[in-house]
Amino acid sequence: MSMKAWAIHKAGGPEVLEHVEIPKPTLSLPRDILVKVKAVALNPVDFKVRKNYSGAAAPHVLGWDASGVVEAVGSEVHHYKVGDEVYFAGSITREGCFSEYCLVDERYARSKLYFRSGVAARLIYQHPFV
């Protein structure tokens, strides 16, 4: 199954962003949640990664601040269930969330306030559960 995303293939300005069709992610780690993305936010990290991208793993999806609805949960997820509304700051070591779906470790997610305000508030609550 595939999904739509905004991705880059090379470093540069906004002109390097491309609308692409890529595989929908599947659960890969026990603490992962699969989120159907409803809102995203731009972060200075997005601009820095886009500007300095090496092209090693193209296409590369940017964006790590998002909110959405949990669609699937890993075998060791304790804080969320399918249907929960969450916001999160994902890990820069993984694919971003400028896409229809995104994988995120549950420890980086929080219960949603509202989709848009949850995205904006994530910097305040970015420390993971222990």
Element order, helices and strands?
EEEHEEEEEH
Strand content: 35-45%
Report the span from N to C terminus: 33 Å
Low-confidence stretches: none
* Helix percentage range: 10-25%
Can you tell me the overall shape? globular
Count every helix, treating DSSP H or I runs of 4 or more residues as helices: 2
Question: How is this structure best summarized?
Answer:
This protein is mostly beta strands and 130 residues long.
Short descriptors:
130 residues, mainly beta, 5-stranded antiparallel β-sheet, 3-stranded antiparallel β-sheet, 2 helices
What does this structure look like?
With 130 residues, this protein is mainly beta. Helix content is 12%, strand content 36%. The chain contains 2 helices and 8 strands; from the N terminus they run βββαβββββα. The protein has helices spanning 44-52, 115-121; strands at residues 2-8, 18-23, 32-41, 60-61, 65-73, 85-89, 101-105, 109-111. The strands form 2 sheets. A 5-stranded antiparallel β-sheet has the order 7-3-5-6-8. It has a 3-stranded antiparallel β-sheet with strand order 2-1-4, with no helix packed on it. The longest helix has 9 residues, at 44-52. It is globular and about 40 Å long. It starts with a strand and ends in a 9-residue tail after the last helix.
